[in-house]
Amino acid sequence: MLIKTRESNNVVIFDIEGEIRRSESMQTTLHNLVKSHLDRGTRNVLLNLEGVEFIDSFGVGEILASYISTQNLGGKLKLCRISKKLLLIFQITMLTKVLDIQEDCEGALESFDKA
Amino acid sequence: MANGRLEKLLNRFADVRGHEAHAALYLSGFFFLITFSFYIVKPVKESFLIGLVNPAWWPYADLATALLIGFVVALNARLLNRLPRRTYISVSILFFIGCLLVFWYAFDVYLKSLVSTPVADSSGGIFFVWLPLTIMRAWPVPVFVFCFWSDVFIAMSVTQFWIAVNDVFDPYQGKRLVGLFVTGGLFGGIAGSSLAALMVFAKLISAGNLLLVCPVILALALVMVNRVYAEQKQLRGAAEAEVNPVQAGARVGYLESFLSVKRSRYLRLLAATLASAMVVGSLINFQFKFAVRRIFTAADDRTLFLAMFFLAILVVSTIFHLATTRRVLRTFGIRWALLVAPALLLVGSLAVFLVSAGALLAWASLIRGGDKLFDNTLSQSVRELLYIPVPADIKYKAKIFIDMFVNKFATGLGAGLYLVLYWLSGFAYKDDVAKVREIGILVVVFLCLWIALTRAVYAEYPAVLKKDIRRRWDEGDKIVSANVDVDLTRDVFDALQSRERSTTLYLMNVFDLVRKNNLTPELKEVLGIKQDELRARSMDSLFDVGGEVLFQSLDEAIVDKDFASEIDLIFLLPSYQEVMEKRLAEDAGSASEVDRIDAAKLIGLMVRSPETLRYLERFLQDPSPEVVTYALRSAAVHRRAEHVPLILLQLGNPLTALEAQGTLTDYGPGIEEELKSALGDESEALEVRRSIPVVLARFGTQRSADILLDELARRREDVEPELIDALYKIRADRPEVRFRDKKVRPEILFLIGKGYAIVLDAPGRAPGGAPAGLTSEAKAALDIKVKRVFDLMTLLHPPEDIVKACQNILQGTRKSVDYSLSLLDDLLDYELKALLFPLIEDLPPEERALRMKKAMRLK
Question: What residues in A contact B497, CB-CB < 8 Å?
Answer without folding.
Answer: 21, 54, 56-57
